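Troubleshooting: if your tokenizer reports a length mismatch, compare your output against this known-good record of 201 residues.
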Amino acid sequence: MAYPTVSAPYGLKPVNLIGGQVFAGATRLMEIASGYATSIFYGDLVKRITSGTIELDNGTTTATPCGVFLGVSFTNSNGQVQQQQFYPASQSIKSGTQIFAVVADDPDTLFQVVSCSATTTVAGMGIAAIGSNIALIQNAGSTTTGNSKVAIDEGTQTTTNTLPIRIIDVVRETATGADTFVEFIVKINATMHQYNNSTGI
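Known-good structure output:
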């Protein structure tokens, strides 16, 4: 049987919730500071900071996100309302307005993600990876598609409880062998999600 080819990572894509519950698109609007100088792409991890706004969480082994970025809305300096797949760095907005990101912040959300061995090189893992914690690879997103290129880091799967991602399942539809999978279902590790962090920010 021929399987669809996965040629590159695309960030974290919400698919459902723990226990098979449907992901109904529930999100939270979170503010990005005016002029924030880093682009954020659909599928990137974000975190709250002490100002109450959010920023890109570019951690690999120590990310502490509050959720995954799914788009942005703002009014530019010309007064035009923009609803975009990604936040362009250093965005200038109309005075008196805010930049609002759409974030999937439920700690029970499950995401589909690609496994890579280095930057954007797709690499498979076996079913034994299920249940492991794993690090992230932080690649710059695409300004053409607006999508993230974040991946999980094949070869770093282990029991370390401070790694940011927990592997929940494999995606069998894109298997490249009897026990080789390049897409996985994951969640933000409970100990690393900001909502579960007892120390706060």
